[in-house]
Design goal:
By secondary structure, this protein is of the alpha/beta class. It is built from 16 helices and eight strands. The longest helix has 24 residues. It is globular and about 60 Å long. InterPro entries: AB_hydrolase_fold (IPR029058), FrsA_esterase (IPR050261), Peptidase_S9_cat (IPR001375).
Length: 400
């Protein structure tokens, strides 16, 4: 689905940002205004355009809050948070040394935290014990009664932020009577920025401490706990449920079986062989050509170097190799919903591979272009996506 840009990466990211309007994370006119003067593929202009809108709304939110207009402040700050995230998206040249990237990420976190204090329902910031440190999270509660309700544990994937998880799942879950515990793990945004922790394939060692922490909360019903993993997080969540048996259900949004095959599909077979065989003397220059020609390839590889702690582009691609469900899928026992998107070109066929490999109670749910939900992770169709997924969860948990 082309949206405002010919450049596929710009088009998808603009749609992603606009789609968060369903839960007050964007306004269509602001999206159109931000994109109007951004040339296709111009990453610096992208950052400038979105930063300008984010900073304007940040000021609007601060002024509204000072004047006692809580709803106006909350809505402005939520949109500012999403736009700061969007402004930072393509700044992947050297994130560890990029002070502007750090500032944008910090502003996105801060504006969301300010907005969360103004929600009509309780939002509890969390520091979840993990090995010798903690992981950041939010517990979004349906109400302040303390009653035990079904709870979704949600994490993102390759590039989503903790704050964005509210727009992706929590907004729809709260309306339907689900608490949501959202968190970031190693390799993900603030954990990578502030603690230097990179992704790990044995994701059950990340999820299990989160479950332990969730079950200390009286609001969490231990019999109705759901794991929800988004994008690359769909693979991570599947891996976790293979070794963590306290979930009543799992949602893979979307299903991903083998993450290494994703970048290999986008490059010539001979180049994939060079990368796999460690022939970096020829793979490195060839990848540099691909990255120069494609915004998406450039972003994927550079971001991968950051989240996996790789020093070169070939190393970043090889770092994807351990992330698959070869030894895990058959061990998943909880009922699992695998989402698929008709126009998900990067992950085409992955959801069906996951579904076929599962031996538990399972369902494959296809979202189509005709219903406006055919893009990766149903971006731009949050209401349709939430309707189908949470109706499935309602019925599954009721039967359980």
């Amino acid at each position: 689905m082309k949206f405002l840009f010919d450049d596929a990466a710009f088009s998808f990211q603009a749609l992603r940002t606009a789609g968060h309007a369903a839960y007050a994370g964007a306004d269509l006119g602001e999206v159109l205004a931000a994109c109007r003067n951004i040339p296709d593929g111009d990453e610096e202009a992208w950052c400038r355009g979105w930063t300008a809108v984010a900073e304007r709304l940040h000021r609007v939110g601060a002024e509204a809050l000072a004047a006692g207009h809580r709803v106006s402040a909350r809505e402005s700050l939520l949109r500012a948070s999403n736009y700061y995230r969007t402004a930072d998206f393509f700044r992947v040249e050297d994130r560890d040394a990029d002070l502007e990237s750090a500032r944008l990420a910090r502003c996105s976190r801060q504006t969301f935290a300010q907005a969360a204090q103004l929600f009509d329902t309780p939002v509890v910031p969390l520091r979840i014990p993990y090995e010798d440190t903690t992981l950041p999270g939010y517990l979004f509660l349906v109400d302040d009664t303390g009653r035990s309700l079904p709870t979704v544990i949600h994490h993102g994937g390759y590039d989503s932020t903790l704050e964005e998880l509210y727009f992706m799942a929590a907004g729809g879950a709260l309306r339907r009577g689900y608490h949501v515990l959202a968190f970031e793990g190693p390799g993900q945004q603030s954990v990578r920025r502030e603690q230097g922790l990179v992704f790990r394939p044995d994701w059950e060692h990340v999820v299990t401490p989160v479950v332990d922490h969730a079950l200390t909360r009286p609001e969490v019903d231990p019999e109705r706990l759901v794991l929800f993993g988004t994008s690359f997080g769909g693979l991570l969540a599947a891996r976790a449920t293979a070794f963590e048996d306290r979930f009543a259900a799992c949602v893979l949004h979307n299903g991903v079986y083998d993450f290494y095959e994703v970048p290999l599909r986008g490059i010539p077979p001979y180049l994939g062989e060079w990368v796999t065989d460690g022939r970096d003397d020829v793979a490195g220059p060839a990848l540099a050509v691909s990255m120069a020609q494609s915004t998406q390839a450039r972003w994927f590889v550079r971001h991968g170097m950051w989240v996996f702690g790789a020093k070169t582009p070939p190393e970043a691609l090889r770092a994807c190799a351990p992330y698959n469900l070869d030894t895990a899928a058959a061990h998943i026992t909880c009922p699992t919903l695998v989402l698929d998107a008709e126009n998900d070109l990067a992950f085409h066929g992955e959801a069906r591979r996951v579904h076929e490999a599962l031996r538990c109670a399972k369902e494959l749910m296809l979202f189509t272009v005709a219903e406006g939900a055919g893009e990766h992770c149903q971006e731009g169709a949050a209401l349709r996506f939430h309707q189908r997924v949470f109706d499935w969860l309602d019925e599954r948990l009721a039967r359980a």
